Amino acid sequence: MRPVVVYSSKTGNTKKVAEAVQAALPEGTPIRLAPEMSDISDFDLVYMGYWVDRGTADEAAREAMAKITGKKVALFATLGAYPDSDHAKESLEKGAACLGADCDVVGTFICQGAIDPALQERMRQFPPDHPHAVTPERLQRWKDASTRPDEEDCANAASFARETFAKAEMLSGG
Ligand SMILES: Cc1cc2nc3c(=O)[nH]c(=O)nc-3n(C[C@H](O)[C@H](O)[C@H](O)COP(=O)(O)O)c2cc1C
User: Fold this and answer.
1) Structural domain harbouring 143
2) How far away, in angstroms, is 53 Cα from ligand 1 center?
3) Number of domains in the chain
4) Where are the alpha helices (DSSP H) in the chain?
5) Residue 18 above 90 pLDDT?
6) Do both 84 and 127 map to the same domain?
7) Any bridge partners for residue 78, and if so which?
8) What are phi and psi of 154, to 5 degrees?
9) Pocket test for ligand 1, best of 7, 93, 116, 154 (most atoms within 8 A of CB)
10) Would the pTM of this model clear 0.85, i.e. be above it?
11) For 20-44, how does the pLDDT look when each residue is reduced to its tens digit (9 = 90+)?
């Protein structure tokens, strides 16, 4: 099983998770930024990471994902919302839908990631009737996200990497 890690990250959260994933995989597993993903025909298992942008994978990740065809894929993502929310589940489903033809998703992982202060500032300007206006619940979510991904998230990402690698090997009869 030849794995590769491909990810997109604007403020570093998904990068941190991607590095934890890579460190848990066999030594020498390459890691690439999504816009720099070139020929991946040498690999049969792609760890694809993105940050959630308006409920789906961010644009750079989507562009790379469309080019991934016929591979086993382990999807991971970071987002501002809670990882056990419907929004997180849908963001993974929408992400998976961005993959090219004939991919087999062998596992998914999602965790919170600190929200860019510039975005927080923009949202603070929204009027109270705006769907994304600041509410006490939203402020609490931002606060909870502000220290993520943390060590526990990275340990969970490493477990996800090891488990999906073993599963992919089993599926290939290896
Ligand atoms: C433009 C923009 C849109 C975002 N959209 C969402 C979203 O729809 N849902 C969500 O839970 N988080 C959203 N977030 C939060 C990011 O997904 C989260 O902070 C992520 O960890 C950023 O990852 P990065 O540091 O790898 O760029 C958004 C952030 C930005 C900047």
Assistant:
1) 114-147
2) 5
3) 2
4) 13-24, 59-66, 86-96, 117-124, 136-145, 151-171
5) yes
6) no
7) 51, 111
8) -70, -35
9) 116
10) yes
11) 999 999 999 999 999 998 889 999 9
